Amino acid sequence: MGKFGFKVSFKDKSSKARIGKITTPHGVIQTPAFTPVGTQASVKSLTPRDLKETGTQMFFGNTYHLHLRPGEDVVEKFGGLGRFMGWDGPTITDSGGFQIFSLGDRLEEKNPERTKLIEISDNGVKFRSHLDGSLHYFTPEESIRIQHALGADLIIAFDECLSYFLTEEQVESVLPRIHNWEKRSLEYHEKHSKGNQFIYGVIQGAAFKDLRKISTDFICSLDFDGFAIGGVANAGESKKDIYSVVEWVTPELPEGKPRHLLGVGEVDDIFEIIERGIDTFDCVIPTRLGRTGFLFVDPKEGNIENRFRIDINKSIFAKDQGPVTKDCGCYVCQNFTRGYLNHLFRSRELLAYRLASYHNIYFINNLVEKIRDAILNGEFKKMKREWLGGRI
Amino acid sequence: MGKFGFKVSFKDKSSKARIGKITTPHGVIQTPAFTPVGTQASVKSLTPRDLKETGTQMFFGNTYHLHLRPGEDVVEKFGGLGRFMGWDGPTITDSGGFQIFSLGDRLEEKNPERTKLIEISDNGVKFRSHLDGSLHYFTPEESIRIQHALGADLIIAFDECLSYFLTEEQVESVLPRIHNWEKRSLEYHEKHSKGNQFIYGVIQGAAFKDLRKISTDFICSLDFDGFAIGGVANAGESKKDIYSVVEWVTPELPEGKPRHLLGVGEVDDIFEIIERGIDTFDCVIPTRLGRTGFLFVDPKEGNIENRFRIDINKSIFAKDQGPVTKDCGCYVCQNFTRGYLNHLFRSRELLAYRLASYHNIYFINNLVEKIRDAILNGEFKKMKREWLGGRI
Hints:
Two copies of one chain form a homodimer.
Chain A: E1 5-11, E2 18-24, E3 27-31, E4 33-36, H1 48-53, E5 59-61, H2 63-68, H3 72-77, H4 81-85, E6 91-93, H5 97-110, E7 119-120, E8 125-128, E9 135-138, H6 140-150, E10 154-156, H7 168-192, E11 198-203, H8 209-220, E12 226-229, H9 239-249, E13 259-261, H10 267-275, E14 280-283, H11 285-292, E15 294-296, E16 309-311, H12 331-335, H13 338-346, H14 350-376, H15 380-388
Parallel strand pairs in A: 4-14, 5-6, 10-11, 11-12, 12-13, 13-14
Antiparallel strand pairs in A: 1-2, 2-3, 7-8, 8-9, 15-16
Helix pairs in contact in A: 6-7, 7-8, 8-9, 11-14, 13-14, 14-15
């Protein structure tokens, strides 16, 4: 029997931001917290030791990918996701829903005959693997069964990822099916859980206020351990849309349960979503940007295009003997120069991607830590102004 | 003024193996020692901290590559090769000769008109960059000038890399030019060195005993700080050829100066070359093999094809919960399973190449450390028998 708990210890007076602590069988997460994503049981190029050093508190794995490779049976035999990858801290997996739909869409685009590759029924969804085209079938029960085998501390109810381009009527018509899938997820979980995993319900409803309200009411009526807000990072929605959704939903959520925002986390987003009451969020941005040479910097060192990052590939950095960003305490900034990183990227050395991922994850974790401090000191709004200025 | 020194502290009674210590301005190298290669100022995917942890004593950089990118002027401005890459230990650079000839050959093969891309005269060699086809001209003086700018502790005289397929007459005819280039290298070095770099002469002569003798005599007549044996790892020569060359040359070298073997270092080679009196050697094998999934193991765990490595890509390892190799104290073997590494390689995760390089370099450094101990305990031959068995 593991233990799970969440406690809000401090609330910001000037916003909905809050300080809390999620307790899991594998340790405590100080919130607000960023969660880097390691799709295939690895945060691109980083070891668990690196994750610790960068201040990472929780690891996010993708059920869709891990089911296809190496398979949940393998991960289970190795003692679960954390043990499999050598990470002893808290872990979370998603339901597979997002990948089924987003990768399915991509496969359909590539398919000359435009065959429908995803078949949805009320019972579940049939889809093809993006790896080998093999057929798979996920139901809510199957998603939870897999997540039980993967063994993450936190798991997520199975839902459908809705395109941002659906009309309100279309979203309204599928919402009951999504809610039913989540209810079935919870029922399966309650029946089969060994008590050491905790399940989050997901609130959907696209960018429609009324539908988000309906979804929030329904999902909150079920006995989930926490809540996630989904369907805000599909592609197409503006940052304003994302912030609006969060703003509609969080006041309706119970105070005493943790709130995760799925797939959001650029520098400016982080301030906006924490301000609106989000406790945890996951995002591939720090690693994905890092691998192309975009490195996070203090806004004083950014440029007009983007105050929060530099493109280290640019030739102006070739002779720059400074660190990626001043006052950064990370291993990369303490030991390497912009010039050396520019050289590694130009030379396509594997070390380039590694150092970039490391710095970016450290930077975000460190930023969120500073935000926690600012909230506690009543200086959250001030810090937000200093970072975002008049940008938003 | 840096200091340089070499001292043999112990000689094996049953072979030419010896224990020694090379002192450089950036620290001491216990010999025999393996030196991993970091062509572009980075040992593939590893940080200087990793190099330290894997027991690496000296870093080997390639002058040809560093001249083309980022350029020796940049490296010099950053404080030299070590400072540029964040490595505070001893460094060595080669002369550029080997790459000019081996990469030039490859470019010529790809070139449909088979234009001669390398033009050699008595003065030097004109060649095209493998990066952008730009023209460059290396003379002995230019190679040493570049190596002075790169600033490694140990540098190497400029020579010509001879094809293994040349006849004895052909090799004999070019040997005087090579010797002259090395003499000019030394003269330029003596005139321009700041006294903190030390130069090795290279012994050539292909696989011809008489020519190796002539080369050894000539190079030893010059006041080099140490000696390298070159032209044994071109492609085509058998392991027996390599060992023969070492066996002919080392007895003719002065006892009190260090001996480096260029480009050799498979597990069995290591025993054979140390037995024949080599002090240091560099090799890309551990990292190159590692990146394709070949991981070094104790011979008890190897297989019939190769007792010293496994191919972690093979499906038999997918559910293997053991470490890469038993009794290995490296970070990889202490924290990860064969099953996880198999998953990383199958998933082409960047972490795969990193963990493989780390383990392989640790394994070789650790092997050489054990060999040093065995020599000191009078058990070198016994250890060699245990590792190589009746294989050679």
